[in-house]
Amino acid sequence: MRFERCRMLFGEVDFLKIQNTKILILGVGGVGSYALDCLYRSGVSDITILDYDVFDESNQNRQIGSDAVGEVKVDALEKLYPGVTTINQQMDMAWVAAFDFEPYDIVIDAADTTKVKIAVAKKCFKKLIMALGSAKRFDANKIEVASIWKTHGDALARKIRNELKKAKFDRNFTVVFSPEEDKCKEKGSCVAVTGAVGLTVCSEAIKRIIKNN
After folding, report:
1. Is this structure's pTM higher than 0.85?
2. Ordered domains of the chain (ranges, CATH)
3. How far apart are alpha carbons 26 and 7 in whole angstroms?
4. Which residues of the chain have pLDDT under 50?
């Protein structure tokens, strides 16, 4: 059976919870694609992925599905993960304002745009797991999970904290981040970290499903 070993690990009751959870993944690049792979292989049967990008040759060092250079990411991933729901949509402030997050049990934010990440956090913090900076690093042992307010050593986390404070937003949500110092100035990346962040996001989602339901 496809999920026999998942059932062994989680037990029948918790595995059914995992299967029946509705998850939205915002961004399916170096982090989001690994979160998708992990959730799909763990038995989640209702996954929606949202992205607007097209695979480029430069994605091939870190993104699942990136052999399909020139193809829309969500279309390529739909072939690899039959049954997922795809939304080919650019994430901007207008989209966040208009989109209905209510049907989803968990929202995974693997988007790149800071303003969008902040807007998503304000709108659905209770069901959010946010991935922060994973570029410019190669030490997967540095990855941590914490409240956004407990983050340290990550420039994106600091910017998000500061903007939330300015907006007098003090609610809590979970983030996956790395305080590792930048190893380059540009957006160099290593799948050891981007992939591990995505897998950690998946682990956090599974733990939340088992705990909360």
Report:
1. yes
2. 4-212 (3.40.50.720)
3. 27
4. none
